[in-house]
Protein backbone atom coordinates (compact mmCIF):
# COMPACT_ATOMS: atom_id res chain seq x y z
CA UNK A 1 0.00 0.00 0.00
CA UNK A 2 1.51 3.28 -1.07
CA UNK A 3 1.33 6.45 0.94
CA UNK A 4 -1.65 7.88 -0.98
CA UNK A 5 -3.74 4.73 -0.46
CA UNK A 6 -2.81 4.73 3.21
CA UNK A 7 -3.81 8.39 3.53
CA UNK A 8 -7.16 7.75 1.83
CA UNK A 9 -7.84 4.79 4.11
CA UNK A 10 -7.08 6.87 7.18
CA UNK A 11 -9.33 9.64 5.89
CA UNK A 12 -12.21 7.19 5.37
CA UNK A 13 -11.77 5.85 8.89
CA UNK A 14 -11.78 9.37 10.31
CA UNK A 15 -14.95 10.27 8.39
CA UNK A 16 -16.66 7.11 9.64
CA UNK A 17 -15.77 7.96 13.23
CA UNK A 18 -17.03 11.54 12.82
CA UNK A 19 -20.32 10.34 11.37
CA UNK A 20 -20.98 8.26 14.49
CA UNK A 21 -20.55 11.39 16.62
CA UNK A 22 -22.93 13.52 14.60
CA UNK A 23 -26.58 13.62 15.71
CA UNK A 24 -28.95 11.52 13.65
CA UNK A 25 -31.19 13.50 11.27
CA UNK A 26 -34.54 14.29 12.83
CA UNK A 27 -37.60 12.53 11.51
CA UNK A 28 -40.24 14.51 9.63
CA UNK A 29 -43.02 15.60 11.99
CA UNK A 30 -46.22 13.59 11.89
CA UNK A 31 -48.51 16.11 10.23
CA UNK A 32 -51.55 13.83 10.65
CA UNK A 33 -52.02 14.79 14.31
CA UNK A 34 -53.43 18.09 15.55
CA UNK A 35 -51.04 18.94 18.40
CA UNK A 36 -47.34 18.76 19.15
CA UNK A 37 -44.85 19.57 21.88
CA UNK A 38 -41.49 21.07 21.04
CA UNK A 39 -38.93 18.80 22.74
CA UNK A 40 -35.17 19.02 22.87
CA UNK A 41 -32.71 16.16 22.32
CA UNK A 42 -29.42 17.69 23.32
CA UNK A 43 -29.01 20.77 21.18
CA UNK A 44 -31.64 19.68 18.67
CA UNK A 45 -35.36 20.23 18.91
CA UNK A 46 -38.26 18.55 17.17
CA UNK A 47 -42.05 18.44 17.06
CA UNK A 48 -43.26 15.52 19.16
CA UNK A 49 -46.77 14.36 18.34
CA UNK A 50 -49.46 14.55 21.01
CA UNK A 51 -51.55 11.48 20.31
CA UNK A 52 -54.32 12.30 22.79
CA UNK A 53 -54.92 16.08 23.05
CA UNK A 54 -56.98 17.47 25.92
CA UNK A 55 -60.69 17.10 25.13
CA UNK A 56 -62.10 20.04 27.12
CA UNK A 57 -64.86 21.82 25.21
CA UNK A 58 -65.71 25.49 25.04
CA UNK A 59 -69.03 24.72 26.75
CA UNK A 60 -67.15 23.35 29.78
CA UNK A 61 -65.50 26.73 30.41
CA UNK A 62 -67.87 28.95 32.34
CA UNK A 63 -68.14 32.53 33.68
CA UNK A 64 -65.54 33.93 31.29
CA UNK A 65 -67.98 34.63 28.47
CA UNK A 66 -66.44 37.94 27.41
CA UNK A 67 -62.93 36.51 27.26
CA UNK A 68 -64.16 33.39 25.48
CA UNK A 69 -66.05 35.42 22.90
CA UNK A 70 -63.01 37.55 22.10
CA UNK A 71 -60.62 34.62 21.78
CA UNK A 72 -63.03 32.61 19.63
CA UNK A 73 -63.60 35.62 17.36
CA UNK A 74 -59.86 36.19 16.95
CA UNK A 75 -59.29 32.50 16.21
CA UNK A 76 -62.04 32.42 13.58
CA UNK A 77 -60.47 35.42 11.86
CA UNK A 78 -57.13 33.59 11.88
CA UNK A 79 -58.64 30.42 10.39
CA UNK A 80 -60.38 32.40 7.64
CA UNK A 81 -57.17 34.15 6.63
CA UNK A 82 -58.32 37.49 8.02
CA UNK A 83 -56.17 39.81 10.17
CA UNK A 84 -55.83 38.41 13.70
CA UNK A 85 -53.75 39.16 16.79
CA UNK A 86 -51.43 37.30 19.11
CA UNK A 87 -53.24 36.72 22.42
CA UNK A 88 -52.12 37.14 26.03
CA UNK A 89 -54.38 35.75 28.78
CA UNK A 90 -53.44 36.98 32.25
CA UNK A 91 -54.92 36.87 35.71
CA UNK A 92 -55.99 34.63 38.56
CA UNK A 93 -54.84 31.04 38.53
CA UNK A 94 -57.29 28.28 37.73
CA UNK A 95 -59.80 30.51 35.94
CA UNK A 96 -59.68 28.81 32.55
CA UNK A 97 -56.86 30.53 30.68
CA UNK A 98 -55.07 27.35 29.57
CA UNK A 99 -58.28 25.36 29.20
CA UNK A 100 -59.62 27.99 26.82
CA UNK A 101 -56.67 27.56 24.45
CA UNK A 102 -56.96 23.76 24.58
CA UNK A 103 -60.70 23.99 23.93
CA UNK A 104 -60.03 26.00 20.77
CA UNK A 105 -58.16 23.04 19.32
CA UNK A 106 -61.01 20.72 20.23
CA UNK A 107 -63.50 23.06 18.55
CA UNK A 108 -61.59 24.00 15.39
CA UNK A 109 -59.17 21.18 14.57
CA UNK A 110 -61.52 20.06 11.78
CA UNK A 111 -61.16 23.45 10.12
CA UNK A 112 -57.36 23.40 10.12
CA UNK A 113 -56.35 24.67 13.55
CA UNK A 114 -53.21 23.11 15.05
CA UNK A 115 -51.48 23.61 18.42
CA UNK A 116 -47.77 23.56 19.28
CA UNK A 117 -46.83 23.78 22.96
CA UNK A 118 -43.47 25.40 23.63
CA UNK A 119 -41.89 25.72 27.08
CA UNK A 120 -40.37 29.00 28.16
CA UNK A 121 -36.82 27.66 28.09
CA UNK A 122 -37.24 26.62 24.45
CA UNK A 123 -38.49 29.94 23.12
CA UNK A 124 -35.10 30.58 21.55
CA UNK A 125 -36.07 27.83 19.07
CA UNK A 126 -39.08 29.77 17.78
CA UNK A 127 -37.33 30.73 14.50
CA UNK A 128 -36.67 27.03 13.84
CA UNK A 129 -40.29 26.13 14.57
CA UNK A 130 -41.48 28.92 12.29
CA UNK A 131 -39.43 27.57 9.40
CA UNK A 132 -40.83 24.07 9.90
CA UNK A 133 -44.43 25.20 9.56
CA UNK A 134 -44.14 28.22 7.26
CA UNK A 135 -45.22 26.35 4.12
CA UNK A 136 -47.86 24.15 5.76
CA UNK A 137 -51.53 24.73 4.83
CA UNK A 138 -52.75 24.49 8.43
CA UNK A 139 -53.06 27.35 10.91
CA UNK A 140 -50.79 26.99 13.95
CA UNK A 141 -51.11 28.42 17.44
CA UNK A 142 -47.85 28.47 19.40
CA UNK A 143 -49.05 27.85 22.95
CA UNK A 144 -46.88 29.19 25.80
CA UNK A 145 -48.48 28.21 29.10
CA UNK A 146 -47.74 29.93 32.41
CA UNK A 147 -45.32 32.30 30.73
CA UNK A 148 -43.14 34.42 33.01
CA UNK A 149 -39.63 35.76 32.63
CA UNK A 150 -36.95 36.81 35.05
CA UNK A 151 -34.81 39.85 34.39
CA UNK A 152 -31.90 37.80 33.03
CA UNK A 153 -33.94 35.48 30.76
CA UNK A 154 -33.12 35.65 27.06
CA UNK A 155 -36.12 33.74 25.70
CA UNK A 156 -38.31 36.83 25.72
CA UNK A 157 -36.14 38.40 23.02
CA UNK A 158 -36.89 35.50 20.65
CA UNK A 159 -40.57 35.83 21.49
CA UNK A 160 -40.45 39.55 20.70
CA UNK A 161 -39.15 38.78 17.22
CA UNK A 162 -42.04 36.40 16.53
CA UNK A 163 -44.62 38.84 17.89
CA UNK A 164 -43.33 41.90 16.08
CA UNK A 165 -41.47 40.37 13.19
CA UNK A 166 -37.90 40.97 12.07
CA UNK A 167 -36.29 41.59 8.72
CA UNK A 168 -38.10 38.43 7.60
CA UNK A 169 -41.83 38.73 7.00
CA UNK A 170 -43.94 37.12 9.72
CA UNK A 171 -45.55 33.79 8.86
CA UNK A 172 -49.26 34.20 8.09
CA UNK A 173 -50.15 30.75 9.46
CA UNK A 174 -48.82 31.31 12.99
CA UNK A 175 -50.09 33.09 16.09
CA UNK A 176 -48.85 33.02 19.68
CA UNK A 177 -51.35 32.43 22.49
CA UNK A 178 -49.76 32.77 25.93
CA UNK A 179 -51.07 32.52 29.48
CA UNK A 180 -49.52 34.11 32.56
CA UNK A 181 -50.30 35.02 36.14
CA UNK A 182 -48.16 38.14 35.67
CA UNK A 183 -49.69 41.08 33.90
CA UNK A 184 -46.45 42.23 32.30
CA UNK A 185 -44.74 38.81 32.10
CA UNK A 186 -41.66 40.28 33.81
CA UNK A 187 -40.96 40.85 37.53
CA UNK A 188 -41.69 44.32 38.86
CA UNK A 189 -39.92 45.80 41.89
CA UNK A 190 -40.54 48.69 44.24
CA UNK A 191 -37.34 50.25 42.94
CA UNK A 192 -38.96 50.53 39.51
CA UNK A 193 -41.29 53.17 40.94
CA UNK A 194 -38.68 55.15 42.89
CA UNK A 195 -38.13 58.63 41.39
CA UNK A 196 -34.58 58.85 42.78
CA UNK A 197 -32.01 56.09 42.58
CA UNK A 198 -28.78 55.61 44.44
CA UNK A 199 -25.60 56.74 42.75
CA UNK A 200 -24.90 53.13 41.82
CA UNK A 201 -28.28 52.82 40.08
CA UNK A 202 -29.04 52.95 36.40
CA UNK A 203 -28.85 56.37 34.72
CA UNK A 204 -32.06 55.86 32.72
CA UNK A 205 -34.24 53.49 34.75
CA UNK A 206 -37.31 54.23 32.65
CA UNK A 207 -35.65 52.48 29.73
CA UNK A 208 -35.44 49.26 31.75
CA UNK A 209 -39.06 49.57 32.87
CA UNK A 210 -40.17 50.11 29.27
CA UNK A 211 -38.20 47.05 28.22
CA UNK A 212 -39.99 44.93 30.84
CA UNK A 213 -43.47 46.04 29.81
CA UNK A 214 -42.92 46.13 26.06
CA UNK A 215 -43.19 42.36 25.64
CA UNK A 216 -46.77 42.19 26.92
CA UNK A 217 -47.69 45.16 24.75
CA UNK A 218 -46.72 43.22 21.65
CA UNK A 219 -49.77 40.98 22.10
CA UNK A 220 -52.58 42.61 20.17
CA UNK A 221 -55.36 40.96 22.18
CA UNK A 222 -54.84 41.16 25.96
CA UNK A 223 -57.52 39.66 28.23
CA UNK A 224 -57.68 39.55 32.03
CA UNK A 225 -59.21 36.78 34.15
CA UNK A 226 -60.52 37.19 37.68
CA UNK A 227 -61.26 34.92 40.62
CA UNK A 228 -64.76 33.44 40.86
CA UNK A 229 -67.22 34.25 43.61
CA UNK A 230 -68.81 31.51 45.69
CA UNK A 231 -71.92 31.07 43.54
CA UNK A 232 -69.84 30.81 40.37
CA UNK A 233 -67.52 28.29 42.00
CA UNK A 234 -70.47 26.15 43.11
CA UNK A 235 -72.05 26.34 39.66
CA UNK A 236 -68.82 25.10 38.05
CA UNK A 237 -68.55 22.32 40.64
CA UNK A 238 -72.14 21.30 39.85
CA UNK A 239 -71.35 21.22 36.13
CA UNK A 240 -68.38 18.91 36.62
CA UNK A 241 -70.29 16.68 39.05
CA UNK A 242 -72.94 16.20 36.38
CA UNK A 243 -70.28 15.03 33.92
CA UNK A 244 -69.43 12.31 36.45
CA UNK A 245 -73.08 11.38 36.88
CA UNK A 246 -73.50 13.00 40.32
CA UNK A 247 -76.11 15.59 41.27
CA UNK A 248 -75.40 18.62 43.44
CA UNK A 249 -77.38 18.20 46.66
CA UNK A 250 -76.91 19.88 50.05
CA UNK A 251 -74.28 17.33 51.05
CA UNK A 252 -72.28 17.90 47.91
CA UNK A 253 -72.64 21.66 48.23
CA UNK A 254 -71.28 21.59 51.78
CA UNK A 255 -68.41 19.33 50.66
CA UNK A 256 -67.59 21.72 47.80
CA UNK A 257 -67.38 24.65 50.20
CA UNK A 258 -65.13 22.71 52.57
CA UNK A 259 -62.93 21.67 49.67
CA UNK A 260 -62.21 25.20 48.50
CA UNK A 261 -61.58 26.37 52.07
CA UNK A 262 -58.77 23.83 52.34
CA UNK A 263 -57.32 25.06 49.05
CA UNK A 264 -57.60 28.77 49.80
CA UNK A 265 -58.99 29.61 46.37
CA UNK A 266 -62.23 29.51 44.36
CA UNK A 267 -61.43 28.63 40.80
CA UNK A 268 -62.54 26.41 37.97
CA UNK A 269 -59.56 24.19 38.58
CA UNK A 270 -60.44 23.71 42.25
CA UNK A 271 -64.08 23.03 41.31
CA UNK A 272 -62.97 20.34 38.84
CA UNK A 273 -60.65 18.80 41.41
CA UNK A 274 -63.48 18.73 43.95
CA UNK A 275 -65.82 17.05 41.48
CA UNK A 276 -63.31 14.31 40.75
CA UNK A 277 -62.64 13.80 44.45
CA UNK A 278 -66.30 13.75 45.48
CA UNK A 279 -67.55 11.60 42.59
CA UNK A 280 -64.69 9.17 43.08
CA UNK A 281 -65.52 8.74 46.76
CA UNK A 282 -69.19 8.05 45.99
CA UNK A 283 -68.34 5.48 43.35
CA UNK A 284 -65.84 3.80 45.65
CA UNK A 285 -68.53 3.34 48.32
CA UNK A 286 -71.11 1.95 45.90
Description:
- The protein has 286 residues and is an alpha/beta fold.
- The protein is built from 9 helices and 7 strands.
- It has helices at 3-21, 65-79, 97-108, 126-133, 155-164, 205-217, 230-243, 250-263, 268-285, and strands at 35-41, 44-49, 87-91, 113-117, 139-144, 174-180, 221-225.
- Strands 2-1-4-5-6-3-7 form a 7-stranded mixed β-sheet.
- Helix 4 links the parallel strand 4 and strand 5 (139-144).
Give descriptors for this structure.
single chain, 286 residues, alpha/beta, seven-stranded mixed β-sheet, 9 helices, 43% helix
Strand and helix layout:
Blueprint: H1 3-21, E1 35-41, E2 44-49, H2 65-79, E3 87-91, H3 97-108, E4 113-117, H4 126-133, E5 139-144, H5 155-164, E6 174-180, H6 205-217, E7 221-225, H7 230-243, H8 250-263, H9 268-285
Parallel strand pairs: 1-4, 3-6, 3-7, 4-5, 5-6
Antiparallel strand pairs: 1-2
Shape: elongated
Largest sheet, order of strands side by side?
Answer: 2-1-4-5-6-3-7
Which percent band covers the strand fraction? 5-15%
Oligomeric form: single chain
Structural class: alpha/beta
End-to-end Cα distance, whole Å, is 85 Å
- Taking all Cα atoms into account, the compactness measure Rg is 25 Å
Average pLDDT, rounded to a whole number, is: 85
How many strand units?
Answer: 7
Question: What is the N-to-C succession of helices and strands?
Answer: HEEHEHEHEHEHEHHH
What's this entry about, in short?
43% of the residues lie in helices and 14% in strands. The chain is α/β, with parallel strands linked by helices and 286 residues long. Strands 2-1-4-5-6-3-7 form a seven-stranded mixed sheet.
Amino acid sequence: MNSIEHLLQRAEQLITRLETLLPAPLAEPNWQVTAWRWVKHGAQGQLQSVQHPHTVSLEDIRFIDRQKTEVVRNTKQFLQGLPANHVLLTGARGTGKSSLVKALLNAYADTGLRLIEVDKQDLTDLPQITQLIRNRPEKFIIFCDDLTFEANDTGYKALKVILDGSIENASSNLLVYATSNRKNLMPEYMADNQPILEKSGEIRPNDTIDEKTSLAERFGLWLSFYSFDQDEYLSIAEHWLQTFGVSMDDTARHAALQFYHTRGARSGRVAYQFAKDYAGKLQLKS
